[in-house]
Design brief:
The complex is a heterodimer of chains A (about 300) and B (about 270). Chain A is mainly alpha-helical and about 300 residues long. Chain A is about 85% helix and about 0% strand. The chains are: A mainly alpha (about 300), B alpha/beta (about 270). Chain A: Its main location: membrane.
């Protein structure tokens, strides 16, 4: 494992050096905060988290899985707590807890008459309550706050490595299984009729979602990660009618929100997770107003022109 | 000319099939052959189990008892092999999905793309083997939707969507077409178009199996009619199945079994 770790560290250092070259192109006033090593790590983490969340958020939005994302992210909490108790790395506990609760939700909705939204609400509030109780016993409030709301300025190498690893896995998975994912999201029945194994695709996508959530924990925290899994995809969905374009736009807005949010949080000394999500929402608002086909202004304009054309 | 199709092997063999949902019997002892290279219309009242039979033929639902073979093989294997194309009665399609009409039809080729060169399988589908695009163009032309190819799928009317889904089924170039009420919610012009397309498919040797409530089109186009309501009521030429007595028997067959199924030799 040691070579793996040093390889990861070296890769991170290379990436950071590359980023600093780009940051150096900006005027001094903008680039000054990134003289600090912790800001450099935070920048790389933010970019990675923005990109992974942006990518996955396309599927979350199109598959109407927003609530599921919310459920998994909350269900991660007891996993973090139990891992802490057992002395495991936190992400293993988080990943297991997220996966188990996603399976539990699936089992509840398949084998009982409970509807999926109730199944999710039930599972995630239970898991979250369990997490709050355990953490209350073993850790301080600041610790809890960091898990809940993230602390990107305090990111260290191990967390950065996890984020990088998750990013690579998510990218490769979406790339390799693009067709299955598209077909399963667009028309699950057709996917089945064409001989795709839809259960594998379904649970694979859930695991990918869980991985993304775990990777984003330290940056935006449990409560706000779901915003990064919804907002970039929703923004991009307003802007285009092509999936590949939507993915690029979504990754772009994800990265832009994360970087801008990080910068603003440093500048005004506010919580980074909150700042990132606020920027993402602001971008969404701009798209909602100004999107060419699906934007409110465009629609209003077309309606007015249409009404004018109808009057002789 | 279309008589060259060998009549010996049935396309679909249903052997004493029982099916149920939560213990509620839906199909009871359904035992029938559907001929290859012919057009069979399946007719029966709402809740007769027609869509259920399709689910069993596709292998996405298991029969409680009995067996089904499609062209001599297990349904689920044939499904993977791309032998069957299926048009569902109630689509599970996400119409807001950002995909064009052309790319929607291309998804019908995703099964065949498993046979593409490796590098084509790891790049976005739009760079797939050009022969897939040729099939897509042809399918769009067949349903007269080529002018809409660049439209987002959500920006079509209900009947146009149906035609695109038919094009997607055609693009699969499957030997057996399973169509669950392809005419529901379609105007007469589109209906005629769809029937013409299916007739062309049948003439080129494909097996067409269609559920419909439209007796007129069944009478006009189908080679065989299968009357189904929980059990097989009859199977044979349209002019002998679509008569008042047989239709009355079909309506009653959901509750009672007072006649042996009337199955004509093909
Ligand atoms: N998913 C399901 N769960 C429980 N029962 C079902 C399910 N699907 C169908 N059924 C029942 O099985 C019976 C047959 O349904 P099926 O959909 O096969 O009928 P159908 O012949 O296709 O009818 P229609 O003409 O209305 O489409 C019906 O009584 C229906 O209530
Ligand atoms: Mg039906």
């Amino acid at each position: 494992m040691a070579w793996f770790e040093s390889l990861g560290m070296a890769l991170i250092d290379v990436l950071i050096a590359g980023l600093m070259l780009i940051v150096g192109l900006f005027p001094e006033a903008l680039s000054a905060p990134f003289d600090y090593a912790f800001m450099q790590r935070a920048l790389l983490t933010s970019i990675l988290v923005g990109a992974i969340c942006g990518l996955l958020s396309c599927f979350v939005v199109l598959k109407r899985w927003s609530l599921l994302g919310d459920a998994i992210s909350h269900a991660v909490l007891p996993g973090v707590a139990i891992a802490y108790l057992l002395g495991w790395p936190f992400f293993i506990g988080a990943f297991l807890a997220g996966a188990v609760s996603a399976l539990g939700i699936g089992a509840l909705e398949r084998h009982t008459r409970i509807k999926s939204d109730a199944a999710m609400g039930l599972m995630f509030t239970f898991a979250f309550a369990l997490g709050v109780v355990i953490i209350g016993k073993i850790a301080t409030n600041t610790h809890l706050m960091h898990i809940l709301f993230g602390n990107v300025l305090g990111v260290q190498y191990p967390a950065l490595m996890l984020t990088l690893f998750s990013g690579v896995v998510a990218l490769v998975a979406v790339w390799v299984f693009y067709r299955s994912l598209v077909l399963y999201t667009f028309d699950p029945m057709q996917a089945q009729a064409l001989g795709f194994n839809t259960s594998v695709v379904h649970y694979g996508l859930i695991l990918l979602l869980t991985l993304t959530i775990v990777a984003s924990l330290e940056t935006v925290g449990i409560i706000l990660v779901v915003a990064m899994l919804i907002t970039p995809g929703a923004t991009a969905h307003l802007l285009t009618d092509r999936l590949t374009t939507m993915m690029l736009l979504s990754v772009g807005t994800g990265i832009l929100s994360a970087v801008l949010g990080l910068y603003l949080s440093f500048l005004f000394d506010v919580a980074s997770g909150g700042a990132i999500v606020l920027v993402a929402t602001a971008l969404f608002a701009v798209a909602l107003l100004a999107a060419p086909r699906h934007g409110l202004v465009g629609r209003w304009w077309r309606r007015r022109r249409g009404a004018a054309a109808m009057v002789p | 000319m279309s008589e060259v199709v060998h009549q010996s092997l049935p396309a679909v063999e249903v052997r004493h099939v029982y099916a149920a949902y939560d213990g509620q019997a839906v199909l009871e002892d359904v035992h029938i052959d559907l001929p290859a290279g012919e057009w069979t219309a399946i007719i029966g009242p709402n809740g007769a189990g027609k869509s259920t039979l399709f689910r069993i033929l596709l292998g996405v639902m298991k029969a409680q008892r009995g067996q089904v073979q499609v062209l001599g093989q297990e349904p689920s294997a044939q499904r993977r092999a791309g032998v069957m194309a299926y048009m569902a009665q109630q689509e599970a399609v996400e119409w807001d999905f950002p995909i064009s009409v052309r790319d929607t039809v291309l998804t019908g080729r995703y099964g065949h793309m498993r046979g593409d060169a490796f590098w084509r399988r790891i790049v976005p589908p739009r760079w797939c083997d050009p022969r897939h695009w040729a099939v897509v163009r042809q399918a769009l032309k067949a349903v007269d939707m080529q002018d809409y190819a660049d439209r987002p799928i959500g920006a079509l009317s209900g009947g146009q969507k149906k035609r695109v889904l038919l094009a997607r089924a055609l693009a699969q170039e499957a030997r057996v077409l399973l169509l669950d009420e392809p005419l529901a919610g379609v105007d007469t012009a589109s209906e005629r178009l769809i029937m013409k397309v299916l007739d062309g498919e049948r003439r080129s040797g494909r097996t067409v199996i269609m559920v419909t409530h439209d007796m007129d089109s069944a009478r006009r186009y189908a080679d065989k009619v299968l009357l189904l309501n929980r059990q097989v009521v009859g199977m044979g030429a349209p002019e002998r199945m679509l008569v008042d007595e047989m239709l009355a028997r079909t309506a009653a067959a959901g509750w009672v079994r007072d006649h042996e199924p009337l199955v004509e030799a093909s």
